[in-house]
Amino acid sequence: MPNTTLKRIGSASKYLVVVAALLVLAGWLINTPPGFFGKADAIGYAVCHRIGERSFHIGSYQLPLCARCSGMYLGAVTGLVFQSILGWKRYKIPHWTIIAVLVVFVAAFGIDGANSYLALLKQVSPGILPNIPNIYMPNNTLRLLTGSGMGLGMAVMLFPAFNQTVWKDGEDKAAIPGWKAFGLLLGIQVVLDLLVLTGSPLVLYPLAIISVLGVWLLLTMVYGMLWVMLMGQDNQYTKLWQLWLPLVAGLTIALIQTAAIDALRFWLTGTWGAFPLGK
To answer: Which domain holds residue 58?
Structure first.
């Protein structure tokens, strides 16, 4: 096939990706609840159970994501921004001792999640699993903290993986260069979590925005990275603006995923609220 034909196909594919993104976004905006926070709720609806008692509230408004998911995506965004400031093209993972701490965070996330789910089962169906006691009474503070730890782990692994995939001139340095930087990151996250626990609307409104945008940010990075690999364009980029097509493609896939899950969940439950717990 002549080079001119290949160039035309490549140029046409760029327009198709943009058109697909606009069409999917328009369809999602039309078919989801009205208002800015209605749209935010619809993003949370695609990834979170949104059970009221397991979520933070501003008056009568329930945040788009539960406490655990809020912490997870807040931690992920914090980790990505922090690493970008240190060196936005670094592609090495941290020292194994830091990874070991992150593994502990992931284990804590799993244990707290399992313990919380057990409590939910007992709440919904009294008498179920009577011989399996809860390790402790679950609460939103632990959900937030363990979610944040999981989010930091996701960011610390995703950031170097993304950089290693896309950049031609990536830096052969650890995205988290040592314990001093890691300790600073943990400190920042603890402060953010404590601010969230104040329950102040000045904190919770930004949290609602950051957490739901974090959902699309992570999905866009993952799917954008996959797009680069599938197109055979690994390590071909030197400027951020050159990544517009993979990132738009990644966002399009993220939008399709969000819209599909929203539609399926609404079809199954008939409500934009939490999963029905039943009796």
So the answer is: 3-269
